[in-house]
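Q&A log
Question type: sequence-to-structure
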Amino acid sequence: MKAVHRIGKIAGIVLINTIFASSSDAATIYESGHLGTTGVSAQQLFDQTVPGSNVNLSVFLGARFEILQPANTTRVGGHFVGFGEGDSIFGAIIALTGESDLPDSFDLSTFDLLGGTKIDLPLESNEVFGELDLFLSPGWYAVVFGGSMFGAALGGGAVRNNTDIGIPSYIQAQQIIGGWANMSPNFRNHRFVVEGTVIPEPATIVLLGTCGVLLLLKRRRAV
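Response status: OK
Response body:
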């Protein structure tokens, strides 16, 4: 009987440990579109045989998104291509006050900037990322990309052969204008991604943990 009781106790512990382990698995926190065909060259974007958008020191692109549970980001990126050897862009996350809010500054010099990272670009388009470790509480944010910040070079291109998921809330900033503007619904088919870990709400963890305890008690009564 003692041996069976011990097995039941171990089973309950394993279940609870599995719950906590699953909360650390990497996930896609946000994606604006499904990845299209990769291997697109800069020349194809220049010729517009494949549509694309400039991402550089004077043109920033991004998308707004909402999260409903706390999360830790691990990296940001998307479908991009470099225009030359060694090209890179930055990716950053901005805190917003709501679904219609925009970043407070073109040069990201204001306190709504949470952090940024460098993203190296390939000469043939691919999905590329830069590491970015941030904690995000539930609310609205923007993931934005540009050039000549956070150690990035002049920039590159965002390929627009992807398929939008729903109606992404795309935004853009141009230095000549000096600020940010809404670009939806005509500014379409980018792939911008935020990856990380969604943190379960405390109530959910307690509920799942209780299930493990009940399973343990059930096994003990059966014995």
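Response note: Residues 8 and 218 are 9 Å apart (CA to CA).
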